[in-house]
Amino acid sequence: MQTLKLLFVLLLISFEARAKDVQECEEIAAGSHICREIESFQQLNGYVQEDWRSVKVINEHTGIESGGTKALPALSRLLHLDLSESGGLTLGDRGLRDFTQLEGLNLTHCQLEELQEEHFPRNSSLRSLDVSYNDIQLITGKVMDRMPRLVYANFSNNLVAEVEINAFKGLRKLEFLDLTTNEQENVTLGENANLRYLSISNNNVRDFRWCRLRGVPNLEELHLHSNWLENLDMGLFFATPRLRVLNVSNNNLYEIKANLFAAANERAVPLQLLDYSSNNVKVLEDLVFVKLTNLRTLNLWLNQINRIHPRAFQGLSALESLQLQGNKISALPDEVFSMLTSLERLDLSRNKIKQLGASIFGGTLLRQLTHLNLSHNNMMELHPLAFSGVPHLRELRLRGNKLTVLDLRMFAPLRRLQLLTIGENRLEEIEGDILETFGNLSHLEINNNRLSYLSSLQTSEYLLQLRHIRIEGNPWQCLCLDEITAWLDKRQVGYARPSSAYYSGRKPLCVVTPMEQCLRDLEAVRAHGLVESYEQI
Ligand SMILES: *[C@@H]1O[C@H](CO)[C@@H](O)[C@H](O)[C@H]1NC(C)=O
Ligand SMILES: *[C@@H]1O[C@H](CO)[C@@H](O)[C@H](O)[C@H]1NC(C)=O
Ligand SMILES: *[C@@H]1O[C@H](CO)[C@@H](O)[C@H](O)[C@H]1NC(C)=O
Ligand SMILES: *[C@@H]1O[C@H](CO)[C@@H](O)[C@H](O)[C@H]1NC(C)=O
Ligand SMILES: *[C@@H]1O[C@H](CO)[C@@H](O)[C@H](O)[C@H]1NC(C)=O
Ligand SMILES: *[C@@H]1O[C@H](CO)[C@@H](O)[C@H](O)[C@H]1NC(C)=O
Ligand SMILES: *[C@@H]1O[C@H](CO)[C@@H](O)[C@H](O)[C@H]1NC(C)=O
Questions:
Q1: Would the CB of 176 count as within 6 Å of ligand 3?
Q2: Which atom of ligand 1 is nearest to the CA of 109?
Q3: How confident is the model over 14-43, as pLDDT tens digits?
Q4: Which is one Pfam family of this protein (predicted)?
């Protein structure tokens, strides 16, 4: 009996194994198939049925080769071929010529060193070609001319050092050309009437002249980040009058010149996004962006900016996001942001700003500004009226400064504030009437200051919306801290973070005092030397 059973099981297993061998292809959607362990186009040709439209080859143990000289007619049924997981493609005499109807071809990770014209059918129907992650060095016009209907070409992550001039000229439908992560030194694209998206990011381009883009008058996005550019010549919009996105981040650009944005007929230019981050710009001159009336996003983070002229941002009336973090700004001229009437987000964190004057936002109200980040600066003072022009702030970050006092007048206008971080400052006291203005606050950070008490919370209607608070790292009197945490617990406000050193017992949360109750008097607290004794623990 036992032996019989075993035999039966063995039989079953061998039957299943054989079934799997035969079923190398499975249908994953109507007309769409995945085929495994396919060694050649000839083998694939044997599987492709009348109604097949799309095949992805997945090989774990082998690559795939085109081989043979015999025509493989079934392959002409396919509209999409994905060999990105085929383990490498070896193109023999016929190359991909049997795929006469192909519209989408994915050859990423195929270990290709070159593309030859005889590998592609004449007048192919290809619209999308992805050959990223290969070792291609050269792009020639002869190969590209075989694909007159191409819309999308992705050559990223190859070794392309040379693109034949006008290689893409005949491709009248081409809109996207990605040459990111290659070896190009010069841009030799030549003409292409309809190109809209071009990336030559992460190449070795040192010297770029916009006139080289004269052949691509419809370009809308240009990505040149991570090259070796040191300066940009004038007149970008003469060559590409429709440019909306320019990314020159992570180069060695040491200035921004107004004449870069010069355009024919003094027209307004359409640029919406300018990413100039991670360069070496030191100064922002007056009127440098004045032409950019459609700009929405300006990224200037991680430069060396130490001077901003008062009218540097003039003209940017559509700007929504201004990123200046990680520069060397120590002072902001009066009115510098006052013309940015559409501004929603301003990031000035990680600079060296010493103080915030009364009128950096000028007399105008910046009604759209909801996010302001001033964390990690050197601010010892905020002018009491510094935020009077930005009453709609929802998030204000002041963490990591040197503030010693807060003034009621700073926060009184900020009725909509939902998030406030003032952790890592030097506050000794937050007055009760300031807490009272925080009616909409749901997230508050006052950790790592010199606070030893908060004003009496018992009866107050403070902080009704509060959900999260950070309080650790202050020399709280233990009695005061007990009151605070009892109050927070009652309100179901989250404050403890078990992973932090303070809540796991590695750092002290409060100071035991001889007093019988929480002492709410700054002078008396100072006389007891509470801050000093906490810092010594
Ligand atoms: C090609 O295949 C790769 C890997 O499967 C995938 O990441 C990529 O998006 C595909 N390309 C196109 C154009 O679909
Ligand atoms: C290419 O194919 C299209 C559509 O099938 C056809 O109209 C055109 O004449 C062909 N061009 C050449 C050069 O064969
Ligand atoms: C080109 O391919 C790379 C690598 O897969 C991908 O990250 C990139 O987004 C693609 N480019 C475009 C324009 O789709
Ligand atoms: C790139 O252009 C510069 C001058 O425009 C030239 O000196 C250099 O040889 C060119 N490099 C290549 C690889 O063609
Ligand atoms: C610009 O390029 C940088 C790489 O240096 C990249 O991180 C950033 O996302 C790009 N910006 C846009 C808007 O695409
Ligand atoms: C500054 O704050 C904003 C939100 O107000 C946030 O999105 C941004 O990431 C912060 N900047 C840095 C450098 O952390
Ligand atoms: C909370 O914000 C709303 C507008 O978002 C405002 O009308 C209201 O007065 C604020 N509440 C308090 C208590 O400040």
A1: yes
A2: 4
A3: 444 444 444 589 999 999 999 999 999 999
A4: LRR_6
